[in-house]
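Late entry, written up from scratch paper. The run itself happened at the end of the previous shift, but nothing got recorded in the book at the time, so transcribing now.
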Amino acid sequence: MSDSISPCDEHGPAPVLESRPVIVEVRNVNKSYLRGSHIIPVLRDIRLDIREGEFLALMGPSGSGKSTLLNLIAGIDKVDSGSIVIGGVDITALDETELAHWRATHVGFIFQFYNLIPVLTAFENVELPLQLTGLSRAERREHVETALRVVNLANRMDHYPAQLSGGEQQRVAIARAVVTDPTILVADEPTGDLDRASAREIMSLMCRLNRESGKTIIMVTHDPKAAEAAQVIRHLDKGYLNHAHP
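Output as recorded:
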């Protein structure tokens, strides 16, 4: 397939988002970091709505605040001011314990460098998030096997990360992200460490999760090819958010 054709084309038309409810509401969010004695503003008065089933790409130069915004939405970091409401829950009002429980239930994480545990098999890596749930061992196995089938790695579940290619490791990471059936998937440069063929494979998989499974995906990327998979592209520059469609 030509590299000029979006990997999403094979998964049917993009959903019509206007009729979908807003699932992520970011309102007047500001975030700064202290560097020595200096306060460095990173995000300024950010307002953002993301609809259920939307595939959003966040783009911008290094230092523009893309990963910071992603981490705030994922509940990894805390805002200085403003609010973030996800699925009706104001996560900026949660304490650390409540936030940890919310993350475990509602957020699936996909990282640039996979973050797999080398001494665990693919199956065991995918099972990790389920250890925090009340599922039985048999129920966990069923969920893990389903997630690995979704990423076409059911035949590699007993392999360790070192025995897998980069693309396969990222597919394991995606299986780990979706195994809890989270409210949102957040992906930070998911193709940044992959060759072009593997990157295209990963984006095709993320399109399938979005279009066939209805997953809401928020992705940070520098890669215009990866961004083509998204229905909406937002650009961050010097802490400010601008709007553009793909």
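Residues 149 and 155 are 9 Å apart (CA to CA).
(Scratch paper discarded after transcription.)
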